[in-house]
Write a structure and sequence with these properties.
Layout: E1 5-7, E2 12-15, H1 23-29, E3 36-38, H2 41-44, H3 47-58, E4 64-66, H4 75-87, E5 93-97, H5 99-111, E6 139-143, E7 155-160, E8 165-170, E9 178-181, H6 191-210, H7 216-238, H8 243-259, H9 266-278, H10 282-296, H11 298-311, H12 319-332, H13 349-358, H14 371-383
Parallel strand pairs: 2-9, 3-4, 3-5, 5-6, 6-9
Antiparallel strand pairs: 1-2, 7-8
Helix pairs in contact: 4-5, 6-7, 6-8, 6-10, 7-8, 9-10, 9-13, 10-12, 13-14
The chain binds fe (ii) ion (FE2).
Length: 386
């Protein structure tokens, strides 16, 4: 099958190998004459970005590059980008890279025309209505990892260093107007990054599927996303140059983020404070806590897991069968077993638990959670007990 397509759900997606060459056309389609390409400092030096900038310049576009951002991006990364955007008189953003670059690029595009500070647009109540929509810049998103799905997301996760909390900045129009998904851009990812980001995509699908709200469309997308991940993540980790595996993982990643419009859950609630305080990798942290959270929620998700197990064609369709699949997948792609293995110690549980409880993802957990529950669950994930 030719793994290529033009889709308009949930936004305009140009999918297929080699389609990065359409970047200048995508910018022009959104009326840009001088985009600012936002990426991370490591990618900025690679031919992938150098070539993309050159293709824009060759097509008659002015094209600046902003790369002053870090993994788990902070407010200064956004304000620096806004300053670069204004100084260069840019008229749109190309958000190009992994989750950090995509989130920062989307946040810059939001902030270039706002008078209020960034934190006023946190995803709380109806705060998004504070946004001056006319001030938002258009965005073309180009993912280079398969996991975050931020290219089809309506939010950015930015760390507030004054409180060491990850905050979700949200507006429906933060969904990039055009996405270019070129699987070739992901073939150079090393196996451990492929594994960690791929498990982030799985956590999006799993949490969205399990969230206790009525949203059959999201659930349908989530289970097919999980099937693709089951078939292709181990292949992509083992052989990064397998473009078929990279293709299926890239779209599975977008499917995870599309599905989680429905909601997330305790995997993300536990993961965000670890990233904010200890700098742990987001996808890796989700992967570590995944089986413990499933087990915690067992009473609320047993029937759903059976349906999932049947769809995934597992030998054992039951909750236990799905849990065993998650455990064996984790092991086969080299994910550590406990939070202690990635630097989260017993002493952190009481510090992190209130923040996990306050995380916006908590509302989507199948079982209601208290701060005390999160402390218990952290201890389970740290010690590796079920
Ligand atoms: Fe995530």
């Amino acid at each position: 099958m030719d793994l290529k397509g033009n889709w308009n759900y949930p936004t305009a997606i140009r999918f297929g190998v080699g389609r990065i060459k359409e970047l200048p056309d995508a910018c022009k389609a959104l009326g840009m004459k001088s985009p600012l390409l936002v990426t991370d400092p490591a990618l900025a030096k690679l031919p992938m970005i150098v070539d993309a900038v050159k293709s824009c310049v060759d097509a008659g576009l002015g094209c600046g590059v902003y790369s002053n951002l870090q993994g788990n991006p902070v407010e200064e990364n956004v304000t620096g980008g806004v300053a670069a955007y204004r100084a260069g008189k840019h008229d749109g953003v190309i958000a190009f890279g992994g989750g950090s670059a995509l989130d920062t690029g989307k946040a810059i595009a939001l902030m270039v025309g706002q008078k209020r500070p960034l934190w006023d647009f946190e995803d709380r109540e109806d705060w998004f209505t504070r946004v001056d929509v006319a001030g938002m810049a258009p965005v073309v998103a180009v993912p280079t990892t398969a996991g975050t799905g931020s290219e089809v997301g309506r939010a950015s996760v930015i760390t507030d260093t004054s409180t060491h909390t990850k905050k979700i900045i949200f507006h429906p129009k933060m969904l990039p107007s055009i996405v270019i998904e070129d699987p070739q851009l992901t073939v150079g990812l090393p196996p451990h990054v492929t594994a960690a980001t791929g498990m982030d995509a799985l956590s999006h699908c799993l949490e969205a599927y399990c969230a206790p709200f009525y949203h059959p469309m999201a659930e349908g997308i989530a289970i097919e996303g999980m099937r693709l991940i089951k078939e292709w993540l181990p292949v992509a980790v083992k052989d990064g140059r397998n473009v078929e595996a990279r293709s299926h993982m890239l779209i599975a990643s977008s499917m995870g983020a599309t599905a989680f419009q429905k909601g997330l859950g305790a995997m993300h609630s536990l993961s965000h404070p670890c990233g904010a305080h200890l700098g742990t990798h987001h996808g890796l942290t989700n992967a570590v806590v995944m089986p413990y959270v499933l087990n915690w929620n067992r009473s609320a998700i047993e029937a759903k897991m059976e349906r999932l197990g049947a769809y995934l064609a597992l030998e054992d369709h039951s909750f236990t069968g799905v849990l065993d699949w998650v455990l064996s997948l984790r092991e086969s792609i080299g994910i550590p077993n406990t939070l202690a293995d990635i630097g989260v110690g017993e002493e952190h549980a009481s510090l992190l638990a209130p923040e996990a409880f306050a995380d916006p993802s908590t509302g989507g957990n199948p079982l209601p959670m208290t701060a005390q529950d999160f402390e218990k669950l952290y201890r389970v994930c740290i010690a590796g007990t079920h």
